[in-house]
Amino acid sequence: MSHKPTISELAAEESRRQNSVINLIASENFVSDEVKAVLGSDLTNKYAEGQPGWRYYGGVEIVDKIENRVKELAQKVFNTNYHVNVQPYSGSIANLAVYFGFLQPHDPIMGLELSHGGHLTHGHPVTISGKLYDRYAYFVNQKTGLLDYDQLESEANEVRPKLIISGASAYSREIDFKRISEIAHTVGALHLADISHISGLIATELHQSPFGHADFVMTTTHKILRGPRGAILFCKPEHAKKIDKAVFPGLQGGPHMNAIAAIGVALEEALLPAYKTYCQQVVANAQMLAELLTKKGINIVTGGTDNHLFLVDLRPQGITGAIAQQRLEEIGIIVNKNSIPYDDTPPQDPSGIRIGTCAITTKGITSQELEKLAEKIVSVLA
Ligand code: DSN
Questions:
Q1: Residue nearest atom 1 in ligand 1 by C-alpha distance
Q2: Distance 248 CA to ligand 1 centre (A)
Q3: In terms of DSSP H, where are the helices of 190-338?
Q4: What is the mean pLDDT of residues 213-233?
Q5: Which end of the chain is more exposed for a tag (fewer CB within 10 A), N or C?
Q6: Is 265 in the same domain as 328?
C-alpha cells in the first residue's frame, strides 16, 4: 500500500519548496522564528471572546496583557492615536467590519476596479461587499496608468457614496490618501484606507500615511509587515464602539490569541531600526529589478515603481500571464498572473504578471543576484 504523507510531512515539504524557489509574489514573505514560535504556542488553546477587561471566559489575565500590549505596539509602529482592534482574522473580515458597522444594504460605495489594481473585498460583485452594497468602481488613467484623482472626485460627486475605499493590491505608485480623504469628506462619505500591501512603507515613513485623514485604516499583517496571517483595524476614536462591535460579536467569535500575540512579535520587530533598512531595501530592489527588465525590453506598467511591486505588461511578448507564470515556475521563480489596467482579457487569463520584492529582500538578495534574476526572467518571457 502506498504511504500517504502525513500533514506534518507535507508541511515540511512545503518548507523545502519555499526555500528552494525565488519568491516574487508581492503579498508573501518569510516570518521570523520568533513569530513562528509564538504562533505555534499554547496561546492557540485559549478562548477569549470579548476585549481585554471584559471577556466571556475565565483565565484571561495573561491574554489581556498580551492583547493590550499588541494594541499599544500597533499604535507605536504607525505613530497614531487611532483606536485599534487587533482581532480580525484577516483583511477580508476587517474590511467587512467597516461595511457592517457603518453601511446599510445597497448603500453606494466606491473602490478601485480590480483589474486596475484594486482588491476583491473593495466591492467586487463576486464578493459579499459587492452583493450587499452598490459598488461604483473608480479607475486609473488609461494613458498614465496612475490613479486619476480628478476622475474619482467627479464620480464621487455624482455617486454620493457612503464610503470610499482606497488602497490596492497591484498598484506600484504612491497613493495620495489625503486627497482621497478630502474627496470623501466633501461628498459626505467615510474613507477606508486599506494599506495591506504598503503598511511597512507607511510605518517607516517611506510612503504617505493615511493616519490623520482616513476614518478607518486596515492592514493585513502577513505581507510586508512580516507577521502571521491576520489584520489590524484602526479607526478614528469616535468610531471605536461600532468597529469593536462589528468585529465581535458582529462577524467573529473567539479571537485567535496565538495569531494576535505573533502579530505583536512582528510589530516589536518593525520597531527595530533594521526594519526600516529592510523596507528601504525592498523598494530599492523593486526599482532595480524593474529598471533591469525595462532595459531588456520588458514593458513595466507606469514605467517603474515607488513601492515593493510592479506589473509586467506581456502583450508585446504575445504571451499571457498564465503562460509566463508557468514558464517562470519551471525555472524556480514564483509569480502570479495579474490583470493589467484596461486589459482586454479576463482575470482568469490576464495579460500581465505581478512581481514583488518583499520575500527576496527578507532572504537578503544581492544586486548581482538581482541582475541574474532579471536575465532568467527575460530568458523565458522573450
Ligand atoms: N491576495 C492578496 C494579494 O496577493 O495581494 C491580497 O489579499
A1: 27
A2: 24
A3: 199-203, 240-245, 257-270, 273-295, 321-330
A4: 98
A5: N
A6: no
